[in-house]
Give the backbone structure.
Amino acid sequence: MRLMLKILVVAGLSLAILIPLVLIRAVIHDREQHRQAAVARIASSEAGAQTLGAPVLIVPYTERVEVEDTDAQGRPVGRVWRDRSGTWTFFPRTMDMSGTLSPYLRHLGLHEVRMYALGGQVAADFDVRIPADVDGAPPRTIGTPWISYSIADVRGLRGTPRLRVDGAGVALKQGAMSDGGSGLHAPMAQPVRAGAALRMRSVLDFELTGAESLAVLPLADENRVSLDSAWPHPQFNGRFLPRSREVRADGFSAQWTVSSLASDAQLQYRNGTRAQAHTAAMLRGQGDVGIDVLGISLVDPVDAYTRADRASKYGIVFVLLTFTAFFMFEMMRGLRIHPIQYGLVGLALAIFFLLLLGLSEHVAFAWSYLAASVACIGLIGVYLSAVLRSRLRGFGFAAGLALLYAALYGLLVSEDNALVLGAGLLFVCLAAIMLVTRHVDWYQVAATSASTPPPLPKH
């Protein structure tokens, strides 16, 4: 009966330790939100995540149409002729974009925000035919066409972009004009006639800054995008992965080739869907961002909050293994360990993750992990030397914890193999417990534990 009661007490304490672990995870998530707020503040003063669209050609027109007229009561009174305005939207036949992402950092308090300056060029070839007038209908009046470039945050433009159409410079103006959104547009000088063919080549040279993420909207029939950067940790996202890529210790290069046959971007653009509203979702790593874009994010593989959050998920495993070892010592060696002593050691294990989080905001994660683990292991070792009435036992437990912390660090730095390493660690721990206790007669242990064990001499 006493054995079962002890098991229930230990199980209850293990569940109770979940409370501080959950609170610590809440603190980690709160600090992550603080960092996101820092990104938003820097974006509000410099530039946010950027989306750049391939150019589109917009041709406005006015036509006379016959419509049914009504009186004040809504009753038809006859047919009248009225002017109706509209636009034709033409997409380029090809779009070639090339550029270099030059990363730099902005700091706000404790937080670093990854920024980039994209120096690039967008070349597009148009080969379109203006619709002819309908036989028998009044001729349309065609206005001045313009080329429109969608840019999520034009505050990121450095200097003055330079646009050339068939080799001649064209002045750029504010606003995308095609949808009233953010961007640039340039009116064309040449007049356009109904039924005429229009062929031209536009080349835009620009430098654009942004925060952490870049998306490109592939609106041409054939889209080719080539980017390179000195940032060694890219994350490719959006709807299209690169056709080829090379990630090196000193940076990366990537090339995309996207056909309009494989993308709904043109249809989505005509229907009014814009990529600017979805770039933040892409930055958060969500696969479906609402519109067909190809994208890239400059990520930090050693992000302190991500690793601290992953480490905290193993907190209950640490507590269970430690409490199991305590229970075995208590039952097999005649030691008496009070539930409060169980709880204090469990709290020390939980505090490790809070120390890790706090230190990692100021120093590199590896050093933070080392300092937090040494502090907690040292504290537990000194405390258990008194609880277990032996320095050898106390620091033996501390050595076992050191092995667990070392194994956990291996899990954190090996993202691709974290699952198999974690499963292997749990298997080894379980196997060790089973092998050590394979000859134990638990009925005898339970009978022995019913009597009060004599105190052990101190070493």
